[in-house]
Amino acid sequence: MDSLDFKLADGRNLDLLVGAGDSQTAIIFHHGTPSCAFIWKSWVEHFEKLGVKSIAYSRAGYSTSDRKVGRKIVDINTDIAQVLDHFSIASFVAVGWSGGGPHALASTLDPRCKSAVVLAGVGMYDQPDLDFLADMGEENVDEFGHALKGEVELSKWMEVNADYLKTITGEELRTSISTLFSRSDIVTMERESYSDGLAEAFRTSLRKGYSGWIDDDIAFTKDWGFTLDQVKLPVAIFQGDEDLMVPGRHGRWLNKHIPHSTLRLLKGEGHLSFFSASQVEILEFLSNLV
After folding, report:
1. Are 207 and 63 in contact (CB under 8 A)?
2. For residue 139, what is the domain's CATH number?
3. Which residue among 87, 111, 163, 186 is the one 20 to 30 A from 269 at the CA level?
């Protein structure tokens, strides 16, 4: 497994975590918000052992990836297409967790994509049949409220409310109190290996500041650059029913509007616990897709 600085055609750097598999079918991992390629390390290692090529990347503005101002969700396809070309990937499965969910769905527009897997992915904002903020923890409601006011106001919010994540430790995560953590999330973070890894992902993702996070939040609340009826490929949706970061209604809404989707609702799981508790099941599911 290699960590690479990949140079895009427009001169921007894209941070990659690339498994050693030599297959022409690959898995492309899209991380959450905020996060980075590092969060997928154990997943990339898993497929490396199976000889399946897998690639995680850090979206523009995260980790060492350069910012792309004003990006839409669909714009990720331009970056990923160059990565696919570079590694001679003939087909791929897109996997997106949380804020990576919309980006995984955008990937289905690439002719090389076979299918997508969305893990607690965000639904579209300002839809008549989705109350986007309902059942979210207060911190998320506050955050998106500032995102709707634009970059300047959201940047001010980040400086006050998110600065601690630049240096957060696993111990601080284990003892933190948040309206975003479900009961099962709190139990999951009591495991040192999990909370230490999550803290490292936060620190790594924000090493260049908040620009990736800011651009994600604003992109979620605007036109994604595509509609869900354009998603013609099979999509598997996994969602915890006690999620306070991306509530279950988002998964149900996506399942309703994506033509060829299935929904697996996991009882008693939150946003973090679901990602951890279901890893074995999802890895097996992915193994059958590639």
Report:
1. yes
2. 3.40.50.1820
3. 163
